[in-house]
């Protein structure tokens, strides 16, 4: 992994060029490398990992992007095992907190609250959602019963057709914010169902132990990505943004500011919206363009506040909180390191709340988040020893996170041909193209491996 300035000129040829060194791109390259096929990875940023960004901050590793791994995420676990990257269980012992719309605070113990405003309708509706999700065809979503009708409606339409209880609707809205980083009025109901099924069910998405938030990486979630890049060596080139892909005479000419590379096949792994910054010649087929135009990146910021110790544990608090009011933070977790040598809280700011919070100046943003943390674990939260934010819509290469979701009508108009079908010699990977754990690191890895197999089959 050498920056372009110290690498010398770009090679003029490579059998396969992979665009992007996130988990999809690195996994595609690793699979090709394992098959003995020459590959070159071109990455725009000055680091690998993409939407997984582990930063060393003194004696802490802070994961600004993807961080959790669950026991059914076999692709990520296999990669971590191959490179000896250790994980540890997410901290969650103690009493969790809900902050209600009126500002009142209620504690509960266990995986999820069993009482509280709106809980009955919320449980009834999410059970129905889970049942409906099982009918989605994960490989061919367009073959799902009632596909077009479900894709024509938003999650908000569907929720409101089932309850008028504003507290239940607030719980459902926080689900949409917490999982897709958007608002219920913006996302296709079919997409919600597809994604729930791709994760193995609603509980898998929402819970911690045994589910998506089960564990974290001791050295940060980018550790496996860095290990893959280390193995690939100078086949991963940082600081090299691809600007255009030109298919000509059965080859693809890959253009960058540092020169051009001619490849037999190219695998594009950038987020769907970021493909808009790459010029395709000939233009991408209309279905590809349409699918990407109907994809929108979620809006999320991840904010970390560090303390000398996890002080909240002495008071019986887990550090886990859900906040339904209209201030900044939506969800909080205890993100302390595996040995708890320091205390770290991570706060997520989503959707509409992010839009408002991101407009504030630095001091006001910090004050708003710390104030919310103090509501959940007490006034000591107001004085962290370290504070850091990552506002993902401002990231120049990701343009948002955690992932792209489909707006209503996007799947039915463009899914069949535009989702992940190769366009000539250009193949597509990325967590948004996965059928299992879509939107997650695990899905990124399986998508990269799938695209590598497509390429290997034709070379
Ligand atoms: C805040 C946040 C929290 C998340 N939490 C979790 C979690 O806990 N667990 C989980 O499993 N997932 C989580 N995710 C989702 C997960 O991180 C992503 O689904 C996954 O990392 C996407 O990988 P990818 O390779 O498909 O895309 P990316 O990681 O986006 O990789 C694409 C790469 O392409 C590069 N690129 C873009 N344009 C160009 C160009 N023109 N030329 C060259 N390179 C280019 C980018 O810099 C990037 O490195 C989270 C994401 C975010 C943002």
Instruction: Please count the helical segments.
Output: 14
Q: Termini distance? A: 26 Å
| CA gyration radius, whole angstroms | 22 Å
- Tally of domains: 3
Secondary-structure-derived class = alpha/beta
Helix content: 25-40%
Largest sheet, in brief, is: 8 strands, mixed
Structure ligands: flavin-adenine dinucleotide
**Outline type:** globular
Number of strands: 22
Going by CATH, the homologous superfamily of the largest domain would be FAD/NAD(P)-binding domain
Which residue ranges are poorly predicted, with pLDDT under 50 across at least 5 consecutive positions?
A: none
Strand-residue fraction? Answer: 15-25%
CATH classification, class level of the largest domain: Alpha Beta
- Which CATH architecture of the largest domain is right? 3-Layer(bba) Sandwich
Q: How much is the average pLDDT?
A: 96
The CATH topology annotation of the largest domain reads as FAD/NAD(P)-binding domain
Explain the overall architecture.
By secondary structure, the protein is α/β, with parallel strands linked by helices. It has 3 domains: 4-51 and 222-284 and 423-458, FAD/NAD(P)-binding domain (3-Layer(bba) Sandwich), CATH 3.50.50.60; 54-93 and 211-220 and 299-394, Alpha-Beta Complex (Polyamine Oxidase, Chain A, domain 2); 119-177 and 184-203, Guanine Nucleotide Dissociation Inhibitor, domain 1. The chain has 14 helices and 22 strands. The strands form 5 sheets. Strands 1, 2, 10, 11, 12, 13, 14 and 22 form an 8-stranded mixed β-sheet that branches. A hairpin with a 2-residue loop joins strand 3 (54-57) and strand 4. The radius of gyration is 22 Å and the shape is globular. The chain starts with 12 loop residues before the first strand and ends with a helix. Bound molecules: flavin-adenine dinucleotide (FAD). Flavin-adenine dinucleotide (FAD) binds next to helix 1, strand 16 and helix 14. Flavin-adenine dinucleotide binds next to helix 1, strand 16 and helix 14.
């Amino acid at each position: 992994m050498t920056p372009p300035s110290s690498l010398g000129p770009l090679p003029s040829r490579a059998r396969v060029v992979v665009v992007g060194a996130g988990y999809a791109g690195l996994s595609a390259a690793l699979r090709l490398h394992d098959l003995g096929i020459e590959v070159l990875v071109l990455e725009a940023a000055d680091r690998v990992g993409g939407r997984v960004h582990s930063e060393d901050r003194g004696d802490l590793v802070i994961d600004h992007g993807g961080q959790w791994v669950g026991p059914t995420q076999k692709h990520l676990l296999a990669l971590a095992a191959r490179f000896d990257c250790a994980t540890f269980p997410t901290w969650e012992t103690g009493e969790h907190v809900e902050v209600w719309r009126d500002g009142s605070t209620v504690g509960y113990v266990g995986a999820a609250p069993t009482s509280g405003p709106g809980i009955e309708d919320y449980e009834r509706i999410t059970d129905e959602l889970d049942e409906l999700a099982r009918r989605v065809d994960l490989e061919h979503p367009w073959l799902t019963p009632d596909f077009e009708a479900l894709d024509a409606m938003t999650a908000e339409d569907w929720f409101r057709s089932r309850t008028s209880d504003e507290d239940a609707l607030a719980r459902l809205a926080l689900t949409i914010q917490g999982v897709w980083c958007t608002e219920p009025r913006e996302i296709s109901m079919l997409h919600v169902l597809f994604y729930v099924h791709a994760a193995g069910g609603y509980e898998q998405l929402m819970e911690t132990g045994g589910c998506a938030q089960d564990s974290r990486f001791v050295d940060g979630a980018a550790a496996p990505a860095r290990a893959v890049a280390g193995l690939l060596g100078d086949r991963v080139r940082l600081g090299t943004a691809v600007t255009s892909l030109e298919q000509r005479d059965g080859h693809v000419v890959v253009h960058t500011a540092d020169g051009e590379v001619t490849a037999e096949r190219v695998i594009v792994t950038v987020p769907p919206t970021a493909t808009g910054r790459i010029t395709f010649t000939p233009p991408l087929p209309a279905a590809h363009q349409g699918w990407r135009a109907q994809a929108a990146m979620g809006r999320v910021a991840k904010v970390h506040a560090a303390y000398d110790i996890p002080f909240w544990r002495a008071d019986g608090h887990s550090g886990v909180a859900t906040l339904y009011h209209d201030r900044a933070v939506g969800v909080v977790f205890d993100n302390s390191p595996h040995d708890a040598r320091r205390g770290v809280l991570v706060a997520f700011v989503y959707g509409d709340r992010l839009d408002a919070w991101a407009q504030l100046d630095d001091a006001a943003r910090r004050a708003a988040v710390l104030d919310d943390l103090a509501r959940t674990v007490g006034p000591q939260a107001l004085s962290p020893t370290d504070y850091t934010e990552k506002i993902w819509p401002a990231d120049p290469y990701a343009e948002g996170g955690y992932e792209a979701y489909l707006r209503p009508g996007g799947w039915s108009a463009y899914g069949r041909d535009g989702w992940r079908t190769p366009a000539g010699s250009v193949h597509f990977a990325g967590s948004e193209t996965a059928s299992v754990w879509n939107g997650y690191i695990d899905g990124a890895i399986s998508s990269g491996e799938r695209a590598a197999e497509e390429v290997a089959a034709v070379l």
